[in-house]
Amino acid sequence: MKYRKLGNSGLKISEIGLGSWLTYGKSVENQTAHDCIHKAYNLGINFFDTANAYEEGNAEIVLGEALKKYERSSYVVATKLFFPMGKGPNDRGLSRKHIFEQCDASLKRLGLDYIDLYQCHRFDPDVPMEETLYALNDLVKQGKILYAGVSEWSAAQIEKAVGIRKDLHLRPIISNQPIYNMLERYIENDVLPVSNQNGIGQVVFSPLAQGVLTGKYKPNNEKPSDSRAANDSTNFVINSYLRNDVLECVQKLNNLAQDLNLTLSQLSLAWILSHEGISSAIIGASRPSQIEENVKAIDVELSNDILGEIDRVLEEIKDFAPLR
Q1: Of 31, 178, 210, 291, which residue is the least packed, with the fewest Cβ within 10 Å?
Q2: Pairing relationship of beta strands 3-5 and 12-14 according to DSSP bridges
Q3: Domain assignment of residue 321, yes or no
Q4: CATH value at residue 35
Q5: CB neighbour list of residue 93: distance below 8 Å, 6 or more residues apart
Q6: Is 54 known to be catalytic?
Q7: Residue 254 lies in a domain
Q8: 194: domain range?
Q9: Total domains in the fold of the chain
Q10: Percentage of residues in the chain with pLDDT exceeding 70?
Q11: Per the confidence metrics, is the pTM higher than 0.85?
């Protein structure tokens, strides 16, 4: 495994991280989830991402149970808060009250004394940013979290947070967790440049576009019966990827990967890791073998010619905007 610093912090995380969105605590049996987490750890992955809202806390429980056999200093746990965790008016968002209560709840579910990276799962327009940043700073002072980050914040929101942090002499935000893959590249416009300027690393999710960038979905074909798209009718995001022009583009990328003796997953992950400012790509896995395949991407060096060829293929769908 290879490791990168998370932004300008001293924290080093694995180039491939393991996440638990749409998998652990839900569609993957707990024992299989544990097997995946153990495989990831044994392959050198030290970065494990989850959130309080993933299956109402069950994903945190599964992750904590699997990691408790390992030395605490050997892994990095990231979790998040924002989405509703109850029916009350204060059971959501980024208020000081919700942040403090949900941090304690996450620590209990994870079975940990501290969270390495605590992230604002989305931006909250209803709460003054100063209140949110002060609360996160106080959690660091209390030793309940080590670092703070955000997820899917815009460049303007990140810049505002950086300015407030400097004015109030608070601890810095060190990470942003956006969606980023070959098909969704919006962060390249301004989020990446602003983050790079301010020492904020990207820990990107959905690097394989929910499985579309594995090549399993073919143009003009039915969805595989065992696929996520075929079995989750509520997942409008993945279904928005399944346009024939997009899948034809993916097929060309798959052919390019085969010419390089790579899987499309490996090519897709290596492409992400080739970009400045990326600290880790967070994969999901329902089988340990998927992790074994994906971690091989860290050893792939893509030449400028190959990167240019990828861009030429992607130019065919430059106006594609997935539903989010």
Answers
A1: 31
A2: antiparallel
A3: no
A4: 3.20.20.100
A5: 82, 124, 126, 127
A6: yes
A7: no
A8: 3-208+275-299
A9: 1
A10: 94
A11: yes
